[in-house]
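Hi R.,

Here are the chain sequences for the assembly we discussed:
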Amino acid sequence: MATEFDMFFTFRWLLAIVCTVYAVVCIWRSWVGWLMYFRSGRRTAVLGHYAMVLLLRVRIRRFSCELFQIAALLAILGWLVYVHRWVEGAT
Amino acid sequence: MSGSVRDRPEKTRALSELPADELVRYGQELGVQLDARMARGELLRRIRERQELLLDLERDAMLDIVVWARYPVRASASKEELARLIASLGKMDFRNLSDRGLIALARLRDVPCQKDEPRESLEDRLRAAEPIWNRLRRGRRRIVASLITRVVNGQEAAESEVYRFLPEEGAAPSLKERIAEDGVVGSLTRKIRSVADDYVREKLDEIEVRIDQKLDEIDRRLAEWRDQEVANRLKLIKITLVGSVLVAILSLAYSYVKSQSLDATPEKLESIPADKQSETWLPTEWLDRAETGGTC
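And here is the predicted structure of the full complex:
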């Protein structure tokens, strides 16, 4: 069962895997860094709690425009992925 | 009561002279739902209705509400002062609130009620009248409060002791009474000490106010920095998504072209006239196979 080598398909998969791994590693490193910093002492622990309270006080309505755009882009991306299945399934 | 009624014509006159924005602010302070776009007559009518309601309400019932909310107030506070405090409170846990206080609260929140109505139905109606956003905001604040309490106190703080009113102004005995009770030197010493204490307290209050202002300023700047950071992160997410969408469009176009080319198998080429086959962009081996009549 020989599978056909497709350059673009490989590129697409590689791009998705590399980008996802890179994003996960960056976010993980950042989270671990901040957690270690906030747990490094009593004062920094209080600072961490304050930072959490500061984050909880974020007014979502202020970023409603950006969040709406992100939701729209996500919807477009989802639709494009679905259309891929449809186009490839038609062959 | 008679004083407030006697002052009323002056107040009414002063009220009609107020500009619209101050009218709105004054009405909102008293807990009236007002909009700056309302006509002036409508604003005045609603504020006067609220004043009528305040005249109608028992002061003790209003005092019950403030004590229930544990707001610091003097026992001699006026109805308007109490109404201002009540307008600013969003507490919805009606335990420990007297029946007359509950009815007064319902009337101040424009919830229709009757005097012989069961307490539970009135509480339900008050809860139902609360806007959904206020409910959500209260829930969010409860979470924040539990977090802060855990940080500050380590565990949930116990309910505090019995409510006490603020001391009344001029309630302290006069110098004459003190001299009569404690003698000249003792009373003067106490007076000087109390003046010094007052001065120190005033200065401490000033320092506290300045510290509070500074802390507010720091908090405001940190909030601005946080908003900027969140906005930057959202922008990065947006850019990433735009890139993903562009790659997806490119990929979709590629898939479409590929599917179209796969459709054009050598068998289908037989239907293309021989002179036109050379103009196609299909692989030459397919064209050769089509010429020889081979199959895939």
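Chain B is about 70% helix and 0% strand. Chain B has three domains: 2-153, 175-251, 264-296.

Let me know if anything looks off.

Best,
T.
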